[in-house]
Amino acid sequence: MYTPYDFNEAVSRRTEFIQDKLVSGSPVVGMAVDAGVMLFSMRHTQRKIYEIYDRQMFAALGNQSDVETIRLSAIQIAHQEGFERSPDDVTIHRLVGFALSPSIKKAFGDQLSVPWVVRAVFAELGRSPESDSFVTLNYDGEYQVLRQAAVVAGSFAAEEAMRKHLEPTPERPKLSVAIDIAARAWAAGARADRTRRSEIRPDDRDEVQAADDGEAVDSDYLNALLEDRTPEVGLLERTADGAPRFRLVPEASIREALAARL
């Protein structure tokens, strides 16, 4: 007989399985900036930030096949909505809340299917700055709507560490300032996840303590991370005529913005 205890035990084991996979992923930071909305991350080889529709973009961490499936599904649903209804009816709330979240929640609860290994963040450029928004989507189908900033990382502890670095953020900073803030928040999340993996060595104790204490990320630590990673920034900005424009900020411009503050 399948009991409530069996269900809880199965959910616990699936959660543990997913979180073990996610902890090595590269975090993502979303911020509202003076020009629009921005997503920031760092990668080794695989691109992480993509446009979904006119006013929506997306980034995630997790199994690459799951990330790609969600990206393609979001693009397909957005274009179908835009064609059958109106481009104005395409919103990240509808994409995540009505289309993606239910299927992910169903897969997570189905003990006979493989769960999604993914955490994702969607950003949307509103008709006005006040209506800009972010939606974070978890591997169990739960999602959250946010306004000024959003983070996803390999663990909830890492996300908490990242949010501490975003709290003093001035409202709508310039892009160059936002890149520096986002990079340090990203590094704080990566450091927090690193301390929870089995690669911790005795000489990493200071790093563990810094992560546990929520210390600010210094320039040396951030520089070390930048040596073997590529920073990536996706920007949805308002143009002079009011039309949205998606672009990936050139790596040289990102490094220049960071170098000015390191």
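The record above closes out task 2.4. Task 2.5 opens with a second protein, given below.
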Amino acid sequence: MTPTDPQPTTDRRAERTTKVVDLASSSVRELNQALHESSSTGGESSAVEWVITNPQGEHAIACGLTEPVHVRIEGHVGYYCAGMNQRAHVEVRGNAGVGLAENMMSGRVDVSGDASQSAGATGHGGLLVINGNAAARCGISMKGIDIVVGGNVGHMSAFMAQAGRLVICGDAGDALGDSLYEAHLYVRGTVKSLGADCVAKPMRAHHHTELADLLSRAAMAYSTAEFTRYGSARSLYNFHVDNAY
């Protein structure tokens, strides 16, 4: 075993094998290669928990995973953590840099702290939970991902959001939902301003059900009655003869 090989231990209570990788002595390339090789074991991957120590803000940690492996990162991460995730559960016990869970297809990503710009950008599926705040452009061009933010989001969040759900338990910045398509936005606090074609809409019974499910999965104990729903006025992307040349 080389100094960079993961150190296996066994958690008997959870009946799950734990592999610890210390990024103070291993590179991100070595870590990601080991995670991908673990994913290639198929059904065995769900019985392994990877614990990453000393991430030190490194970029692109745990990217491109395709199997239901569990990765727990003990500290802050840099750009594009958990990008292109499929089926894996990635936990970040700290803050995350730009592009967290970008283009996620499925699985789950949890962040205990704050996330920088463009969290969940272009995501097609899965659940992203940010317990703190998210900076500008959270959920930009989302295409089916579900995002729950425990705090506030910055300006231009859900810009050109096409599908999926964005839940904001705090306040939203300027131009929320600009040029929105059919994504569902739920905001518990205030909205500084709405973007083009984004309007407040009634909360119907199925919206309360949808929101309650998302809050439950994110372990956030709020009443759905505290939220306002926002969606597209559908005046930008529908063809209108007056706009034809």
